[in-house]
Design brief:
Shape of chain B: globular
Largest sheet of chain A: 8 strands, mixed
Distance between the termini of chain A: 36 Å
Strand order of the largest sheet of chain B: 1-2
Helix content of chain B: over 70%
Order of helices and strands of chain B: HHHHHEEHHHHHHHHH
Oligomer: heterodimer
Strand content of chain A: 15-25%
Strand content of chain B: under 5%
Helix content of chain A: 25-40%
Number of helices of chain A: 21
Number of strands of chain A: 26
Radius of gyration of chain B: 23 Å
Chain lengths: 692, 346
């Protein structure tokens, strides 16, 4: 293997962007050696320069980006010396790239077949008929059903997962030597992601394509790659084989990153997540020496702040390098400083009862001002049934389109339920819009939103936005008292008090989300709905915000309804879990019950789909076939029957499933008999107790 | 703008103080209100009315300095602002320029008719010449800008106020509000603008206030569409949901949560629309439907000399007011362009 020419080699690569503010070094001293057939993962948080590396490899940095130093060799030839024509014939044929947003990668006004056929016509000079045939073959090999139909379709007529498969097929059509994948599954649902990940693994085995896989998700990298580069603030901080880096990491940042992900061993009371303190430095404010220095618990003045820190070889493992001056001194086996353990919370009385709640939307097609069109009913929520107790965390889990956001809207009073009851403290809220609710009810039911960039009004200061909530809910009226309360809330969410005068654009994503939490808790609510509150944040920030949310919840004995698609976060923080599919609850029970057999077949597939960044975990792979059906036209019988690997023909697609109760409170809506359910094997198996 | 936010609160220098939004609004009012009062109600006040314009002159100068310093990054915006502020300054100071009684716009000087620019007639030197009635064109041009500016800007502001309210209602409340408002807007938009103007002014009779009504009818539907589109986008943001879930009234959400976030595109469009309105008012006056003689107005000046100026020798009578209108409109358009450029940059 050593005498082969690497497909791609980066030597001391430096990339800068030139802006009005001057030169901003985006990537500094980056080294990479990619052998044929190898899959290399680049992992890091937003702003660490991982996408810049990919763009530099494509020589596609745009107007203001430039490679300022180092070498970039593709199959031994210096890419920086190539002419524009050479580069053009290289891109798309020898090097191909798959981007995050599949819809943005496809031309919406061209049929998919024509877009695919362009590749062989342009790069290989193939005839139209031959190109068309090749395209169809390639679609088949990315496992798209009915390639002929898809070739004739426009991009918007197929689903997101199918679009991404088409983009991958397009990238593979010219049989490239190198495939760059920039967060290819981030925009997709977990069960769809699992299918794409399987496909990517299959490609490297079958075509021998070398791959660079860029992601913020350590679990995905673990599942797809052979080697990994961890990046932080424009520098590679650790490089090595997957198993080595995951098991014997030699950089504090890598360890911090792994410590902030909820792994199966983590538990909110016994082993809380450890977050990395501080935040990523801006590119022009990087410290001297180690960029991670200010956030590192092993920082030692004199060693770590000396400029010119280089990658060092780690003893004992070939090709394992780290950018840590103290790598040899730190005791890596000692558990990282864990945050203090938390007392388990005793849950109280039932606060919220949801009883046969239904929400149907009527959509009219072709309707106008005067004439009605066809009516169709979308059953967004169909017979929801669950209760939540005081100080309890109930997670509502499901993929996009499962109706979890609709449920939140009904609960908050933005939509009326079609039938059923939602009782909070003896008041039925199902048909009570928010304007008709009394101030107490409104203030006892608040929400934390998903998108940190949308959650605060950019036109008003942070303090004014929190103060408005305090006045609105009548917590305080006196201006001085209101201000004092605003400052106290900032203390609670661990932000400096002078943030009250700032505007949202001066805050980072995690800080905005903290303000969002402060705002939700300003009126001392009884129930807080958190709609994917951390999914848009970086991994190291996620941990801190999750912990904060749970601390406040525990202190105020608030009921938390945690809406999420991420089962690893849910397992970590939830007491009880409700799994939804296509507007129906398919399974509910305590966290232990849901995560252990018997499973509902959908829960089983979800569990299998979530990537886990732990080498000691072994999973049974279950990849769902097909796509989620149109909610306006759900399958008869069991909603999951079209994708269920256990589906019983003639039963599951005809009759709605009965609710089985393997243990009191654990309910599964499924036709499978007791024995089959009981005979299920666990999806996740932890081989040996993890090191700590 | 970021400078303002980051400036230390302890010792803000004069510029930082001037650039505070509250100061800017105050300055704008000090400039604008006297001018409007003078032009619209000057006759009612009678003699000495021009004294209310005194505070407007320093306010205009200060605003110009602030604009120059804030828009340093866009030469286009600076050019536009220079043109606009030149005419604004003329508008607020023209009563005081007439120190020697030479700048009377309505006085027909006997024997001075058809004087070409840069010639002396009688004992007066006519920089821009005189028209067929012997009235000094320089005086008429300077005085004329007052009326174009005041009526044009006021009409646009009224159209904006109404268009924005309707747009917010249609966009935020949706449903029947949206159907009804959009339907009416579509009906109004289906008329050619000029036909709509002529219809309204023929019915109401020509006057400044009726021009405001006509401009509102013609522009508000388009403004309503812009604001409605912005509202539809902004109302899906989480902070609007947050306001809804704490039971805020629709009025509060529209005014506090939605409107401030729609201001960027609205301001740019307003600058462009000021240009259109100026053209429309000038055209209306030219057609005899707008402001009435004898007071000077650029459109009126063009109308009055239209016959005479067909002779090439006397074309200056037409070119001078026409150029004045063009520079003002160009100023508004360049300002709009520059503002858009700056808003896109960051």
């Amino acid at each position: 293997m050593t005498d082969q020419t690497p497909i791609l080699e980066c030597r001391n690569l430096c990339i800068s962007y030139f802006t009005r503010a001057g030169e901003i070094p985006a990537v500094v001293d980056f080294n990479l050696r990619l052998m044929p057939g190898e899959a290399h993962g680049i992992v890091g948080e937003s702003g660490c320069g991982k996408s810049t590396v990919a763009l530099a490899i494509m020589q596609y940095l745009g107007q203001n980006g430039r490679i300022t130093g180092g070498e970039l060799l593709f199959e031994g030839r210096d890419m920086r010396a190539m002419s524009a024509q050479e580069l053009q014939s290289l891109r798309g044929s020898r090097i191909a790239m798959v981007y995050q947003e599949p819809m943005a990668s496809l031309n919406p006004s061209m049929r998919i077949g024509e877009q695919l056929a362009e590749v062989p016509i342009y790069h290989d000079g193939a005839s139209r008929a031959e190109a068309w045939r090749k395209a169809a073959e390639m679609l088949e090999s990315v496992r798209l059903p009915d390639p002929e139909r898809i070739m004739r379709a426009y991009p918007h007529q197929i689903s997101g997962g199918q679009q991404q498969r088409v983009v991958i097929a397009m990238a593979l059509l010219s049989s490239p030597r190198l495939l760059l994948l920039d967060e290819p599954t981030t925009a997709l649902d977990v069960t769809v992601e699992a299918g794409i990940v399987d496909l990517i693994k299959e490609i490297s085995a079958r075509f021998g394509t070398s791959m660079i896989y860029i992601s913020h998700n350590l679990g995905l990298i673990l599942e797809t790659c052979d080697r990994i580069t961890v990046m932080y603030s424009g520098e590679a901080v650790e490089v090595g084989d997957i198993a080595t880096v995951f098991n014997d990491m030699r950089h504090p940042y890598t360890r911090g990153l792994l410590g902030s992900i909820p792994l199966p061993g983590a538990d909110k009371t016994a082993r809380p997540l450890t977050s990395i303190p501080g935040q990523l430095p801006l590119p022009h404010e990087r410290p001297a020496g180690c960029n991670f220095g200010p956030r590192c618990e092993h920082f030692r003045a004199g060693t770590c702040d000396t400029p010119g820190l280089r990658m060092l070889d780690v003893d004992g493992a070939a090709g394992h390098r780290t950018r840590c001056a103290r790598a040899a001194e730190i005791d890596w086996d000692r558990a990282a400083a864990t945050s203090e353990t938390r007392e388990p919370i005793e849950t109280g009385d039932v606060v919220l009862v949801v009883d046969h709640m239904k929400k149907h939307y009527e959509i009219e097609r072709g309707a106008s001002f005067l004439v009605g069109g066809d009516r169709k009913v979308v059953k967004a929520n169909e017979g929801l049934d669950f209760r939540a107790r005081e100080a309890e965390t109930v997670a509502i889990v499901g993929e996009s389109g499962c109706g979890k956001s609709t449920f939140a809207k009904v609960l908050m009073g933005l939509e009326d339920a079609t039938s059923g009851k939602v009782v909070l403290d003896g008041t039925d809220l199902a048909m009570l819009p928010v304007q008709a609710r009394d101030a107490d009810t409104v203030s006892s039911l608040q929400m934390v939103f998903q998108n940190p960039f949308d959650t605060l009004n950019p036109s008003h200061t942070v303090g004014a936005q929190i103060a408005r909530v305090i006045r609105k809910f009548g917590v305080e009226r006196d201006p001085a008292a209101v201000e004092e309360r605003v400052l106290q809330l900032l203390d609670v969410v661990k932000l400096p008090r002078d943030f009250a005068k700032r505007r949202p654009r001066q805050l980072s994503g995690g800080q905005k989300q903290r303000i969002g939490i402060a705002r939700a808790f300003a009126g001392d609510p009884k129930v807080v709905i958190a709609d994917e509150p951390v999914s848009a944040l970086d991994v190291s920030v996620q941990a801190a915000v999750t912990e904060l949310l749970m601390d406040i919840q525990a202190r105020n004995r608030t009921t938390l309804l945690f809406i999420s698609h991420d089962l690893s976060v849910v397992r970590y923080l939830a007491d009880r879990i409700v799994v939804m599919y296509l507007g129906r609850i398919v399974e509910q029970g305590t966290t232990e019950e849901v995560f252990a057999p018997p499973y509902h077949p959908y829960t089983e597939a979800l569990l299998s789909a979530v990537p886990i960044a732990d080498t000691s975990v072994e999973k049974r792979r279950i990849v769902l076939e097909g796509e989620m059906p149109d909610p306006a036209n759900p399958p008869s019988g069991c909603a999951f029957s079209t994708r269920c690997p256990y589906a019983i023909a003639g039963t599951c697609d005809r009759e709605p499933p009965p609710v089985r109760e393997p243990s009191p409170g654990h309910r599964i809506a499924c036709h499978l008999d007791r024995q089959t359910l009981a005979g299920m094997e666990p999806v996740i198996r932890i081989e040996a107790p993890s090191a700590a | 703008m970021t400078d303002t936010a980051l400036a230390p609160a302890a010792a803000p220098d004069l510029m930082a103080r001037l650039r505070r939004p509250r100061t800017l609004v105050a300055l704008l009012l000090v400039m604008w209100l006297p001018l409007v009062t003078y032009v619209m109600f000057g006759n009612a006040i009678g003699a000495g009315a021009e004294n209310i314009l005194l505070p407007a002159i320093p306010a205009t100068l200060l605003l110009y300095v602030v604009a120059m310093l804030s828009w340093r990054e866009s030469p286009i915006a600076m050019m536009g602002a220079t043109l606009v502020f030149f005419w604004l300054l003329v508008a607020v100071s023209v009563p005081f320029l007439d120190l020697f009684g030479l700048l009377d716009p309505n006085k027909p000087n006997l024997g001075a008719n058809f004087t070409v620019p840069f010639t002396e007639k009688g004992d007066t030197f006519y920089v821009l010449g005189a028209d067929h009635k012997g009235r000094d064109l320089l005086a008429r041009t300077l005085w004329g800008c007052q009326r174009v500016l005041v009526w044009g800007v006021t009409a646009t502001l009224v159209a904006y106020a109404i268009g924005s309210i309707l747009g917010l209602l249609a966009g935020y409340l949706g449903g029947w509000w949206d159907e009804a408002i959009s339907f009416i807007a579509n009906v109004l938009l289906s008329f050619p603008v000029m036909v709509l103007f002529i219809l309204i002014l023929n019915y109401l009779g020509p006057s400044g206030f009726n021009i405001i009504i006509a401009v509102t009818f013609a522009s508000a539907p388009a403004i309503m569409r812009i604001v409605r589109g912005l509202t539809l986008d902004i109302k899906t943001r989480d902070y609007v949901y947050a306001a809804q879930t704490r039971g805020e009234s629709a009025l509060y959400i529209m005014v506090v949560e939605l409107l401030p976030n729609a201001r960027g595109p609205i301001i740019v469009d307003a600058c462009l629309r000021l240009g259109y309105t100026t053209v429309a008012i000038t055209t209306l006056t030219f057609l005899g439907l707008g402001l009435q003689p004898p007071d000077p107005d650029w459109g009126l000046m063009i109308k009055e000399v239209a016959q005479v100026a067909q002779l090439f020798r006397f074309a200056f009578m037409l070119v001078i007011p026409a150029l004045s209108v063009s520079t003002l409109i160009l100023g508004f358009n360049l300002m709009a362009d520059g503002l858009r450029e700056m808003s896109l940059r960051d």
